[in-house]
Model the fold of this input.
Amino acid sequence: MSLGQQLAPHLPFLRRYGRALTGSQSHGDKYVRATLEAIVAAPEEFPRDVDPRLGLYRTFQVIWSSTNDDQQADPGEVDDQEAIARARLARMTPLSRQALLLTAMEGFTVEDTAYLIDVPASEVETLVSDALSEIENQTRARVLIIEDEPIIAMDIETIVRDLGHDVTGVAVTRDEAVALAREDRPGLVLADIQLADDSSGIDAVKDILSEFQVPVIFITAFPERLLTGERPEPTFLITKPFQRSTVKAAISQALFFDQSTAPIS
Done:
C-alpha cells in the first residue's frame, strides 16, 4: 500500500483538527495543504518508525510550530473569529491548546501527544489542565442541546453545567429546536443528526443559522455524513460513543473563537 493510500483515511480528521486549532476551515486547510505538500516534496523525511496517522499529525505539527507561533498575520487577512482567537491566545500557551485537542478530541494517548508536540509525557496532563482552566475562565455561554436520546441528553446537560454554562433547553425534533432557539437565543448549539421524528439535526441547525450566527458542535454516530470534503464542513464534530473529556474540549474550543462569550479584555 502506498503512503498516500495509508494517509487518505486520516485526512478528514486532520482537517477537523486544523479547523479546531485555527477556528477557521480555510486557515486550517492551509496547514493541511502545506503538510501534504511537504510530504510529497520529501517523502523520505516522513516518519516511518511510527503509525502513519501519527506521522501525518507530526508533520502537521512541525509545520504549524514553524509558521504559526511567531507569525503575525496581515490585519487585512484576519477575520473576526481569528481576531478573537488571537486575543485569547495571547493569554495562554499554544502548547496547552494543542495538547487539549490532540488528547481529548483526536484521541491520541499522552505518550503520542508528547511525541507530536515534542514535550516530555509528564508535561502533557498539566498542559491539558491549564488549557481547560484558562478557556473556561474566558468563556461562558447559554447552550441549546438537540438530542433525542434522554440518557445522552442528560449526560451532555451535566457536562455543560459542570463547565459553568447554562442550558436554554433540550430539543428532540427539528421544529422544537428551532422554536427553542427563537424563544431563547443560545450562545452555543450541541446537535445530533438523527432526531426523534426522523427529522434532521443538520436541517435544524441550518434553520437556526439562517436567523442568527452561533457556534455549533455536532455529536453523531455518523461522522461520514458531515466529513465529506465539501464546504462548509462543521468545525466541531464529535463521534458517538463519546468521552466526556471530548465534549468538554469541543465546547471550550468552540466558545474560544466566539465573540458573544465573556469579554476577553
